[in-house]
Automatic annotation (TrEMBL):
Compositional bias per record (Low complexity), positions renumbered to this chain: 22-31
Record-annotated KANL3/Tex30 alpha/beta hydrolase-like domain positions: 90-211, 235-302
Residue numbers spanned by region Disordered: 1-39, 197-265
InterPro entries: AB_hydrolase_fold, KANL3/Tex30_Abhydrolase, NSL3/Tex30
Domain of life according to the entry: Bacteria
SUPFAM superfamilies, A to Z: alpha/beta-Hydrolases (SSF53474)
Biased segments, Basic and acidic residues type: 253-265
Name of the featured protein: KANL3/Tex30 alpha/beta hydrolase-like domain-containing protein
Entry-linked PANTHER family: TESTIS DEVELOPMENT PROTEIN PRTD, TESTIS-EXPRESSED PROTEIN 30
Gene3D superfamilies the UniProt entry points to: alpha/beta hydrolase
């Protein structure tokens, strides 16, 4: 395992208090722009997190980018006890099959978590590090995640991970393929909860083996079930993976996700939140009347507020971030129920 450190010293962030039973995000320093203008809430968070020192750890062929919160890094430099370090709230982010952890949604989620006092580990799987397009086998992906959690524990404790220790406040967040890895390994790594962004409920249909060309006999043309537009209901379901996670799961799914939409399973702790106008990658069409940034912000805030609750991370609203998180909570069914007393 090798490691490198990038970036400057972290800027000040703060967290304290709680409102409406839900965590709020905040900054001690609201930041500013040239000419004395105050930065927007989104810009404030990006400015604060861009200066945080980042550590890159090579683990089992993969690459783990560790973005610590200010308090954890200061405690580590002061020689804090391992027991205290293992109490640090941690979220490991897992990417989808065709993208890395630098997608707009995963980057935004990382920013919101770091500024709230969470250490974030962004895991790139071995096939991406090696420059391959085809994902590794599921068992390989699962093993790399478990190795990454062990390596992250070592980062938190400043040395070799203790035999019986993993972060006590750990959660996993995955996009598409990464969400499947997360639900499969959640109990094995001791995660408290899983955030699934665009869970691929139904496998993609097989690609047509023969193009429809003029003159091709009808008997040889691809059937409707084989076409990319085949209804999701005609394909096998992975609902059982969500229900079998063994920990609470929040699924944030685009309204137009071609992979289908999971069903909530309250008995197993599975809830589903739908983002209007978004597709599987949380992209929108012009005719949907929603800005791409708005959709990313909605999904990221819905995910961050839920993760913070399960990680027991309180934080106080400061400046324009009060509005930012309130907007996310307004679209959060569980938060709305808590606020109305239902």
């Amino acid at each position: 395992m090798t490691r490198t450190v990038e970036g400057a010293a972290p800027r000040g962030c703060s967290q304290s208090g709680e409102s409406q039973g839900r965590p709020r995000l905040g900054l001690a320093d609201p930041g500013g722009l040239p000419g004395g203008q105050l930065a927007s809430p989104a810009t404030q968070i990006a400015m604060a997190t861009s200066a945080v020192a980042q550590t890159t750890v090579s683990v089992d062929g993969g690459r783990l980018l560790v973005v610590p919160d200010a308090g954890q890094r200061l405690a580590a430099s002061a020689g804090g006890a391992a027991g205290g370090a293992l109490g640090t709230p941690v979220v490991v982010l897992l990417h989808g099959a065709g993208s890395g952890t630098d997608t707009p949604l995963l980057r935004r989620l990382s920013e919101l978590l770091v500024v709230a006092g969470v250490t974030v580990g962004r895991l790139e799987m071995p096939y991406r590090v090696a420059g391959r397009k085809a994902p590794d086998r599921p068992a390989r992906l699962d093993a790399v995640l478990m190795a990454a959690v062990a390596a992250l524990t070592g980062e938190l404790t400043g040395g070799t991970p203790p035999a019986d220790g993993t972060p006590r406040r750990l959660a996993l967040a995955g996009a598409s393929m990464g969400s499947r890895v997360a639900v499969r390994t959640a109990t094995a790594v001791g995660a408290r909860a899983v955030l699934a962004l665009g869970f691929p409920l139904n496998p993609p249909p097989p690609r047509p083996s023969l193009r429809e060309r003029p003159g091709t006999p009808a008997s040889r043309r691809p059937s409707l079930r084989e076409s990319p537009g085949a209804p999701a209901r005609d394909r096998p379901s992975r609902q059982g993976e969500l229900s079998g996670a063994g920990v609470p799961v929040r699924v944030i799914q685009g309204e137009r996700d071609a992979f289908g939409r999971p069903e909530p399973d309250p008995r197993r702790g599975v809830e589903v939140v739908v983002v209007a106008g978004a597709d599987h990658s949380f992209k929108v069409r012009v005719r949907d009347g929603r800005a791409a940034e708005e959709v990313i912000e909605e999904a990221a805030v819905l995910g961050a507020t839920w993760l913070l609750r399960w990680l027991d991370v309180p934080s106080s609203p400061v400046g324009g971030l009060e509005e930012l998180v309130s907007r996310g909570a307004a679209g959060d069914p569980s938060c709305a129920a808590a606020q109305t007393g239902s």
